[in-house]
Amino acid sequence: MTHQYELMVILNPEIDERQVPATLDKFLKVITTDGGSIDNIDIWGRRRLAYEIQKKNEGVYAVVAFTATSAATQELDRQLGLSEQVMRTKVLRAEDAIAMIASEKQRADEKAARKAARPAKPVKQDA
């Protein structure tokens, strides 16, 4: 059974940005050989990191949307973890991510409704 996934990967900034697609393709072959498909590859380029990773302040970000089996996804994550070129990865099932965003929006809407329903504090007037 296949599912839709989203992969965020941060690559070592010493990689030339022109080599990023070839580097990603090397890892994504796991998905295609297992019968999955690569839906979209979005390379964000070199960005400043929120905190240092492996004594580096920058990384090359890429987001990949793909459809695959869970076994192929686990193998992709394993191979990415073994590579020295990869600083961080995160794989999410797209359905889970969409559900998470929807629940966060609902929670924010409920909070705003409670805040709007609260009575206003009286303003003191100087005599």
Automatic annotation (TrEMBL):
GO terms for cellular component: cytoplasm; ribonucleoprotein complex; ribosome. InterPro entries: Ribosomal_bS6, Ribosomal_bS6_sf, Ribosomal_S6_plastid/chlpt, Transl_elong_EF1B/ribsomal_bS6. Keywords: Ribonucleoprotein, Ribosomal protein, RNA-binding, rRNA-binding. GO terms for biological process: translation. Belongs to the bacterial ribosomal protein bS6 family. Binds together with bS18 to 16S ribosomal RNA. This is Small ribosomal subunit protein bS6. It comes from Microbacterium pygmaeum. The lineage of its organism: Bacteria, Bacillati, Actinomycetota, Actinomycetes, Micrococcales. The gene is rpsF.
